[in-house]
Request: fold
Amino acid sequence: MRRVQPSHGFSAPERTGRALSYPRRIVTEPVYLDYNATTPVAPEVREAMLPWLGELWGNPSSGHAYGRRAAEAVAQARSQVASLIGAQPSQIVFTGGGTEADNLALRGPEVARKRIVISAVEHPAIELPAKRLAAEGWSLAELAVDRTGRVDLERARSVLAEPAGVVSVILAQNEVGVIQPVAELSAMAKAAASDVVVHTDAAQAIGKVPVDVGALGVDLLTIVSHKLYGPNGIGALWVGGGRALRSLTLGGGQERGVRPGTEPVALIVGLGAACGLAKKDLEQEGARQHALRERLWAGLSAGVAGIVRTVEASVTSLPNTLHVRFEGHVGADVLGRAPSVAASTGSACHTDDEAPSGVLGAMGIASASAKGSVRLSLGRRTTEADVDAAIAALVQAAGAA
Reply:
């Protein structure tokens, strides 16, 4: 267990004039290594949101002063989100989160052919809507991955040679962290059908690695606030090229009619502030987390016999994500014996199920090995002391079986 230091904690700030101070906390907490699941709201983000939870209010669609102030705040946030991904503010549509954005991306476009292609390692927010489309009569194809978890480009070539209506490939895989060759896949799909709609779920990539919509060659891109130190319940869909989308809900004309409903100004401001924070130190923070990730692996590999790194350091992946397999163990049991570490088992199969699931199964990892999986994901709060404490706890837990 570790004592939360005020310089690293994201506890509620106290105001002293215009400055922020952070109260010292007496309680101890586990080392948090589950940043791919969610992130704490950053102090800068919370500070930007606070006025819109109190002295400032108004409906952005109202024509009076209260509404105009709210509309200006929404416009500023839209610019901050767009700036992070090399887009125009007018191309950003705010949604209620990543799941809504993904569903809108798959079900919203008007397409010439009812064929959808996804990768074998998508988040359920893509996989399940794609299967629903298949149940409604669409043709569904999957792009296989190799043993590194990356879409196999040679095998993808034949799949994408057949024209599709929608292609959706995750940018950074949420379990193992592998960054997918989205630009190459988009080029293949568009060579077969210039009117294909290409989408990428960038929930895990935004705020961790540089993302440029122009370089990716996609038409739609999903952004999720709570993955980059913003509030939960808000996300965005980047819509390129003036593309028209059908709304999944009916109501007012907000967000160009694509996502009707009164805009949650405080949440939108929070997402904008989170994007602004990410842009400010993206490369430096990524390098810092990468170094901590390698420190974590060095300690675990030295202390745990037979531990396997699922994605080698040579594979292009998120700088904060380390997916390991405790061979001969069940990942959930290892974490259960290490209560001072807050992490997840990722895509490992259930302990009472013989078949590997999700990304590990797609990578060809055997069931017995998959059961030992643990996903360790670092973040802005993670320190060297945290990493060393986690190493000690996990090494002890692996040896206690």
Observations:
- The two ends are 20 Å apart (CA to CA).
- Residues 1-26, 347-354 have pLDDT under 50 and may be disordered.
- The chain is about 35% helix and 15% strand.
